[in-house]
Amino acid sequence: MTVKQISVFLENKCGRLAAVTRLLAKAGVNIRALSIADTSDFGILRLIVDKPDQAYQVLKEHDFTVSTTEVIAVEMPDKPGGLARVLDILDQEKINLEYLYAFLGQSGHEALNIFRVEKIDEAIEVLQKNNIRVLPEEEVYSL
Amino acid sequence: MIKMYWNEKYECMPREELEELKLERLKQTVERVYYNVPHYRKAMQEKGVEPDDIQSLEDLAHLPFTVKTDLRDNYPYSLFAAPLSEIVRIHSSSGTTGKPIVVGYTRQDLNNWAELAARSLGFAGITKQDVIQISYGYGLFTGGLGIHNGAERIGACVVPTSGGNNKRQVMVMKDFGSTALACTPSYALVIAETMEELGIKKDEIKLKAGIFGAEPWTQAMRKEIEDRLGLSAHDIYGLSEVMGPGVAMECCEKNGLHVFEDHFIPEIINPETGEVLPYGEVGELVFTTITKEGFPVIRYRTRDLSSLHLEECSCGRTYVKMSRVMGRSDDMLIIRGVNVFPSQVESVLLESGYASPNYHLVVDRKNNLDTLEVQVEVSDEMFSDKVRGLEHLEHLIKHELESVLGLSCKVTLVEPKKLPRSEGKAKRVTDKRKL
Lengths: 143, 435
Fold this sequence. Notes:
The structure holds 2 protein chains of 2 kinds.
Chain A: E1 3-11, H1 16-26, E2 31-38, E3 42-49, H2 52-61, E4 66-77, H3 82-92, E5 97-102, E6 110-117, H4 120-129, H5 137-142
Antiparallel strand pairs in A: 1-3, 1-4, 2-3, 4-6, 5-6
Chain B: H1 8-11, H2 15-36, H3 38-46, H4 68-73, E1 87-93, E2 101-106, H5 107-123, E3 131-134, H6 142-154, E4 157-159, H7 166-175, E5 180-183, H8 185-197, E6 209-213, H9 219-229, E7 232-239, E8 244-250, E9 257-259, E10 264-269, E11 283-289, E12 300-306, E13 308-309, E14 321-322, E15 327-328, E16 333-335, E17 338-340, H10 342-351, E18 359-366, E19 369-377, H11 387-405, E20 410-414, E21 421-422, E22 425-426, E23 429-431
Parallel strand pairs in B: 3-4, 3-5, 5-6, 6-7, 18-23, 19-20
Antiparallel strand pairs in B: 1-2, 7-8, 8-9, 9-14, 10-11, 11-12, 12-15, 13-14, 16-17, 18-19, 21-22
């Protein structure tokens, strides 16, 4: 039920993000979701792509510091309170959310968010118990 | 020109007499270390030299060199040539990999040191009429206490401000009427800047002489310090391994530093071959102490590049002159007066548990203060998808580096293979200070 996120270390300077996207474009990798966390010196680029293994490979070959992280893709109604309800559930179970970001596309009329949590199995379990859909890997990559 | 000497007998001793004195003292020192310090005895035996073989000053060249790692290997007390009960003071300086170098002084050593520091102050025209503000750090570093004892010996009024607290330095300087200042040249500029910030003009202070050392500086810096503080700036040379400030001092000519040859014998060698070079040639400066009891050194390789010049000086002193230090024959950096080796950074990074990470040091001077930035390539093992994780790592490395180097620094994480390399080899240091 987990999705592979590609994390890339970037120096906080001009052209670094462009270098990554250029490489991925050349390798025919499509970006489905992305977020950047930055400090004054560096940034961490997090990507969900259609072909994570290829993306990892090509970035590695070009000397980027890359890692893959297990995250979950959570579906919720695309209306006020949609995200709030999901977060309430996690909060009640004391599942700490490291970060989250939105998916670019939609699955039907639902919104999709990528969640990075420490206790990933517990998170999946509790979300499913509350009838919240956690998307399987293949579905996410092919969206 | 009025000639003022603290100790005319020695400062102006005829060369012939001085050479005799040097030889006599050299013989005593060689004997002292041979019979008291296992390291020197062993090193001499390996070279097949006995104390009796030293019959002329030229025979000095037969003695083995001493290098910084010898000092470290004998940490802390094994190179002392006097029993600990006779040692009355300890100082220490940073070593190459964590362990510092420890030096000990007997009462007589401190006496001699005060004498030489007093002579040095005399070179800059400082007398008992002066109020001397000592803004060198006090403590294990030799700068503060070294000058302090010399200034008291002269009978000057000592204001031991030590380093830091710039505004207070300026207030003290103005209100106490300091006429002389001793500190690192870069700190002198910080004080000048603070003065300007506070709107204090140089004619509101009474400074006339400055004794600056412990780090390399340039003629341009001298001019700037002299202009902004309205004083005459003199270069002082010393290193704790040999004694501390007062090994050599610049006179009114300001074209080189007289080495106190009645206490230290300087040589210039080819750093590659160890061969002794003639006067005038540039090479590595080597010192043999000839009066020290606690921590004598034989042919200590300073790694400082300089040249020696024996010519008549208008100041009347007969000592040989060493040129201002022009650089290093190793990769040591002097940052805010602190000795830093790139290998220290390397060992900290290795010990932090990450397989031989690549790093690069950037040294710069901003607002007259040296800055050190340590750039570290982020390897896969170090990487985290969480900002918190990387910031924690940055903080850990910074903390560890600062405790080992004794110097604050900035740690910057960089992408792999982005650090400068020359001919395939990593270039470890970029020094932007243009010294």
